[in-house]
Specification:
alpha/beta, Rossmann fold, six-stranded parallel sheet, 2 domains, 12 helices
Amino acid sequence: MLGPSERILVIKHGALGDFVLATGAFKAIRRHHPEAAITLLTAEAFVEPAQACGWFDAVWTDTRPPLWQVARSRDLMRRLRAGRFTRVYDLQNSDRTGAYFRLWGRPRPEWSGVARGASHRHDTPHRGRLHTLARQAEQLALAGIATVPATDVAWAIADTAALGLERPYALLVPGGSAHRPQKRWPPDHFAALASRLVERGIRPAIIGAAGESELAAHLRAAVPEAADLCRRTSFAALAALARGADLAVGNDTGPMHLIAATDCPSLVLFSAASDPARTAPVGARVRVLRHDPLAALSVEQVLGALPAAPS
């Protein structure tokens, strides 16, 4: 440990799945520096959960201006230097955060990350082949943090009564990255799955962002019994819903990471476009089903792979 006057900066922008997978690392850093003033630099979307988790004394928003916008970039670097940080844990490890390291100037704080010249550089050649959790654990071990706990979203609590869901219900996450359609199981397949769940007495609830409203409407047109919760679930509300759900099925996308982290029985659908060995959601009751192309994965195959709800 650095001592009682230490000031720690943790950098993690997101996206949602990455933020969830970093919660164990966040917790480990707080345990390792119990008396430190710890600041998280993150994207605006994660300010609320970062404040709620209890591991940070301050949460700063990084608007991530293009580095060629010199004035805005200079303002951010000025703020970072004024923070008088004694150590930085770069859990983002992007080209952008590497630029922060280079632009920091002298003296630099101790730095855990992949940046060339970092005091605690994570430069093992196999790094890119590791699952996110293993990669973070290895990085933190090099900085003196020997143990990284599992992902932890137990602090994410919310009253979801207004959403009107009563058990039994299943969470369906049919969306995902708009620019990677190969990662999406077809909407008609999700509709057929929803219909089969209704036959079993389980109400489907559709989870998604604002851009997936049309997709939710398509599913509800086919299965009117389904609940459309697109745009209605905050980080905490989704975690609370997942704890009460009988099961969840979704594509390889951020909400499935949060759902799986609550130990909701979860089935995550992967294509060849992403590698579950490196990015799979983690949880006590999560299963992965990989098929390429994903469109050829049948409803029967998904039904046969559904995890059992706890008795």
